[in-house]
Amino acid sequence: MGNCLGSDEAAELEVVKNSGQPQAAATAAPAMAPHKSEGSMSSGSGPSSSSRSAGSSMSSIATTTGRSGGSTSTSSGSRPLRAAAAASYREEEEEEEEEKEGRILEAPNLRIFTFAELRAATRNFRPDTVLGEGGFGRVYKGWVDERTMNPTRSGIGMVVAVKKLNQESVQGLQEWQSEVNFLGRLSHPNLVRLLGYCVEDRELLLVYEYMPKGSLENHLFRKGGSFEPISWNLRLRIAIGAARGLAFLHSSEKQVIYRDFKASNILLDTNYNAKLSDFGLAKNGPTGGDSHVTTRVMGTYGYAAPEYVATGHLYVKSDVYGFGVVLLEMLTGLRALDTARPAQQHNLVEWAKPYLADRRKLPRLVDPRLEGQYPSKAALQAAQLTLRCLEGDPRSRPSMAEVVLAIEAMEQLRVRPRDEAAPSGHAHGHGRSSRPRTGPGRAGSSSHHRQSPSAR
Questions:
Q1: Catalytic residue among 8, 260, 269, 319
Q2: Which residues form the Protein kinase domain (predicted)?
Q3: Where a domain ends, among 212, 236, 255?
Q4: Known catalytic residue: 260?
Q5: Is 252 exposed, middle or buried (0-12, 13-18, 19+ CB in 10 A)?
Q6: What pLDDT, in 10s, does the model give residues 352-398?
Q7: CB distance 265 to 139 below 8 Å
Q8: How far apart are CA 169 and CA 313, in angstroms?
Q9: 353 belongs to an annotated ligand binding site
Q10: How many CA atoms lie within 13 A of 126 on its CB side?
Q11: 124: left (phi over 0), alpha (psi -120 to 50) or beta
């Protein structure tokens, strides 16, 4: 894990055990699919789809029964049926609200795949199905039946992302366990869904919903025909989704500290809805009135909170610092760390803070690829929020619930005609020499970032 800060133990994790060959669907949830149709890592109906279909059937039965007895039917059976239909409808609404707000399961409810099934789903892990690659393995594109989760022919059924871990990686095993035990129990619209796993001999694999728009990192920093600059409004929308995902983790009964918040771990579905992925470093938050947990330092340089790097003390608001770094990346279009820039500009946070605090200097900081198409007031509010998230004292940082409200308020601000009419270089022209410079291409390159958002 060359770009990370250390290694960690998974002693507190419940190890997923499987004797011999894994069962094809011992704890299978074949109908388990995304809350909305989306699809790098699936698409389909949510875990409660069977409940919803039952409710719909009950409703239609009640209607048919009532009508069959005539327009003034008052048969003794119609009232119980109508009551059952109403109860079913209320249950359906409650389930939909629960899906929207998120929930935590008592135990992982995942499909257990055999290695043969995932080999078939990915066409024997063919190179042309590779979605990404990282320190802990490759991520492959696969196809499964939406209902049974059995492998299907290429292009048929539901697309999934299959992460195959390197057999030599000890740390990969720990992170695999963490993924299963955390992400396998968490359900929220802004968290990538883990559909299942495979543990067979020395093979460890994870199966996720497919996110077709890739990672935020790619859209911010990659150049090429497939990655157009994302607009101000879309950046805010992505920031809100990611913030809601973190807020859910922090507000759960047992607080979860994500510990690896960065642009490459924010994946986007077809409609650019943001979802947090990669829970390999996630950790349970403090209990019993403690303010923090003490652990070996892990994460990615440039995103990890200073108090955590210095002491190993991990706070819930250590995640808020990481969010502030990503918000700064979205505001500037620059990487958190980039050694291709001049020495004093390697670390984006250190270099940018004076600009964030100065209303007059701020326009020089904003990503020129936005071409001035953003509300000045919203940019100022984003800068102020970024500074709050990057406070040195974790107690001074806002909660993620407060962050969500702040960005939602920014979203209500619209580009004014004066801003729209401004030339693309109005805010940056005289200040371009002050912006960080990179090698070939403004986004530069950095050895601190993995190649794939999903391949750890």
A1: 260
A2: 125-413
A3: 212
A4: yes
A5: middle
A6: 999 999 999 999 999 999 999 999 999 999 999 999 999 999 999 99
A7: no
A8: 26
A9: no
A10: 10
A11: left
